[in-house]
Amino acid sequence: MKVVPLRLQPGDDLRLVLEAWMGEQDEEAGCVISAVGSLSLAQLRLAGAAEATAIQGELEIVSLSGTLSPDGAHLHIAVAGSSGTVIGGHLCAGSLVRTTAELVIGLLPGWQFRRELDPATGHAELGISPQDLS
Questions:
Q1: Would 132 be classed as within a structural domain?
Q2: Block means of pLDDT (10 residues each) for the chain, length 134 residues?
Q3: Residue 133's pLDDT is what?
């Protein structure tokens, strides 16, 4: 595994920056190892919902996990507001960094992740295959 630290700046779109960064890598499979920071706006698709819910305020990133591929990401996040109440869901575009987001990303040489339509779920799910290194 190749480990890469990243720091995002205020106003960065957390999901879009991660997807764009992954698209620039030689590796075709990645995962979030660690993430801390804050958001001013979290766009979360909650369990069973079709659309994202916007949550605004001073939000601390409690957890971020998921997979990264050149053609998309599957990321789940939990954030806590000023009262300490935690909410989590699928991280959507439009989630904006408030002060910082400090990430450690794992890149997986020799593997290829792709988002592929799964007829059983109706969603673009993770396809995993060995990467042709020849």
A1: no
A2: 98 98 97 98 96 98 98 97 97 98 98 96 94 72
A3: 66
CATH code of 102's domain: 3.30.1330.80
Q: Tell me what pLDDT residue 134 has.
A: 61
Tokens of 39: 């958001």
Torsion sign across C-alpha atoms 51, 63, 86, 101:
negative
Using alpha carbons, select from 52, 54, 4, 49 the residue that is nearest to residue 25: 4
Distance CA 71, CA 76 (A): 17
How many domains does the chain fold into?
A: 1
Closest CA to 110 of 26, 3, 50, 48: 26
